[in-house]
Amino acid sequence: MSLLKTAALVLLLVLLSAPAFAQFDLSGTWASRSNQDDMERGAGPDPVDYLGLPLNDEGRAKALSYNYSMLSLPEYQCGYLTPFYIVLGPFGLRIWSELDPVTGRVIAWKIGGWVDRDVTTIWVDGRPHPSPNAPHTYGGFTTGVWEGDTLTAYTTHMKASMIRRNGAPVSDQATMTMHIMRHGDFLTIRAVILDPVYFSEPYVRSRVWMRDPTVNLGNGVSSPCEPIAELPPSDTASVVPHYLPGKNPFVNELTEKHNIPREAVLGGAETMYPEYREKLTGYVPPAICKRYCGCGGLGVPCITDGSGIPR
Amino acid sequence: MAITRPTRVISKSWLAGLMILAAAAFAGPFQVSSNELDVVEVRSDFYMIAGAGGNIAVQIGPAGVILVDTGVTEKSDKILAAIERLSRGRIRYIINTSTDADHVGGNEKLSKAGQTILGNPGSSGFSDDVYSNSGAASVLAHENVLTRMSALTGQRFPFAIWPTKTYAGRAYPMYLNGDGIQVLHMPAAHSDGDSIVFFRRADVIVTGDTLDTTRFPVIDTAKGGSIQGEIDALNRLVDLTVPPFPLAFREDRTYLIPGHGFVCDFADLVAYRSMVTIIRDRIQDMAGKGFTLQQVKAADPTQGFRKRYGADTGSWTTDMFVEAVYKGFAGKGPKR
């Protein structure tokens, strides 16, 4: 056997003997464990709290223009959040697979929707992403590939939305890479969100769910929604609620409540990192804490009587 | 337009075949060349062609092909080839949404490649030139488009790309390819000759440059455009566009083909409308306080939107947009 044929045979054996990529079964119902980022999971953040978000100046300016009254417009009432909300929202996940009708191979994994999030379909059949001119949807377009034990999914074509439920923006140019890992009865998703418009650095979130066949996650689709006009049309014609630059009335609220410096409240990439605490050496917490003081998922009782003392 | 992966020439060598097999196993997704036109299927028999200037809408049916806008002149051959790959039918009607060269440049070539729907040349007893555009497909636009294109001053357009048919007033209806088509005038928006084209059965609205996901709206004040007209046009589009409510997770919805950029729906349109309205409010507030144009520009009234829609160079800069909006309020006193 010539050297060339030997080399070719070795190559063939390498190709054929490569271990099959582990493809865990992700299907089932995964219950939320809200022991992380309690602020994101519960009633939501304070109006101007961008701490820990890598907002650039443009992102901060857009966020500060946001007025909750915008949600009173019928055209905004039934909007969904984008797939970022998988790792940001409080909900459990229903995951199922879509099979090729002939071969029976998995061609897609579907992460079910919830009240205000659409289904995310992760195509694993090798199809390309659509053209940049194709429509953007609330669910985006996602492809995935198994990398060892991890399903790595890449999402494009999402709509403009919020990265935090106080108007902190994410643009329609953003992309997200999810690393989905199953460890027995635990499911971990680490999401890396890039936004060339509003972020100066990637925004990384991770979250854990626990397998729970008893959890009720509905039918896996989002909730129907009908908008309601809250103001007479003649009063709302051509009106979009927003705050003019420098006029957001909530910009000092977090500072007044928690003594957190305004520059920290306004966020930025620097505020994502633990080292940022060193810049807050003079920080003195308020004598009484009434909101997000540790209550919730960590087993600490919530403050319910206004005393600021967990009970 | 690139749809298929090019076929590789494969050597007879089994070793080469093996190597190709190995390479193919790790190949990434096929990418469409950026030098070619991008054809996006919006509905069955309804397409958007991007990459030839302004977006072009292509509706296909028993009567033939109906186009909204024709791109730039230089891309006419490629546009025609793309249309011929989509349908064997002749181009029967062209509708222009404005006078812009990147929307009307292909009028001559594409109309002559088509065939009038108004009868066979020479058989009707009417003058071919007047009635049937000498056998070519008709080119319809608002009368202000023809007025501006045929004017002796300003931008000059060759006679061959002028509209052959115009409408005045608010709307022009027609029924072709089983679809009710409404051509609606949007006065004083991007210009004074803007039309949107609403295909009622397909549920697709072609917006022209009233909606442009690639930049701030081009408000051509020299051609009668205005910020308030632009906002009015966007709000009218909001009224015409059906959102997917109450079942927002379904595909059912009105689609919009913008003058430039990606295929939109209700939410994208609303986001764009809100962006323009917010910037209008900011500049109106500044103008009401007596700011000069330079002071307004220095205050950056587009902050929060500039990186997404703005440009410091090119044919439509952020400064030009701010100036166009400011013109709508300069000297008009305090806001409200």
What can be said about this structure in brief?
The complex is a heterodimer of chains A (311) and B (336). With 311 residues, chain A is of the alpha+beta class. Chain A has one domain (25-238, 247-304).
Report on this model:
The complex is a heterodimer of chains A (311) and B (336). Chain A is an alpha+beta fold. Chain A has one domain. Chain A is built from eight helices and eleven strands. In chain A, strand 7 and strand 8 form a beta hairpin. The N and C termini of chain A lie far apart (81 Å). About 2% of the residues of chain A have low confidence. Chain B is globular. In chain B, 30% of the residues lie in helices and 21% in strands. Chain B has a single domain, classed as 4-Layer Sandwich (Metallo-beta-lactamase, Chain A), CATH 3.60.15.10. With 336 residues, chain B is α/β, with parallel strands linked by helices. In chain B, a hairpin with a 2-residue loop joins strand 8 and strand 9. In chain B, helix 7 runs antiparallel to helix 8. In chain B, strands 1-2-3-4-5-6-7 form a seven-stranded mixed beta sheet. Chain B has a five-stranded mixed beta sheet with strand order 8-9-10-11-12. Classes of the chains: A alpha+beta (311), B alpha/beta (336). The interface between A and B is large, with 59 and 53 residues.
Topology:
The complex is a heterodimer of chains A (311) and B (336).
Chain A: H1 3-17, E1 28-32, H2 38-41, H3 57-65, H4 74-77, H5 85-88, E2 93-99, E3 106-111, E4 120-123, E5 141-147, E6 150-156, E7 161-164, E8 168-170, E9 175-183, E10 186-194, E11 203-211, H6 233-236, H7 253-258, H8 262-265
Parallel strand pairs in A: 4-5
Antiparallel strand pairs in A: 1-2, 1-11, 2-3, 3-4, 5-6, 6-9, 7-8, 9-10, 10-11
Chain B: H1 14-25, E1 38-43, E2 46-50, E3 56-61, E4 64-68, H2 76-86, E5 91-95, H3 101-104, H4 107-113, H5 128-131, E6 138-142, H6 143-149, E7 165-167, E8 171-176, E9 179-186, E10 194-199, E11 204-212, H7 227-240, E12 255-260, H8 266-288, H9 293-298, H10 306-309, H11 318-327
Parallel strand pairs in B: 4-5, 5-6, 6-7, 11-12
Antiparallel strand pairs in B: 1-2, 2-3, 3-4, 8-9, 9-10, 10-11
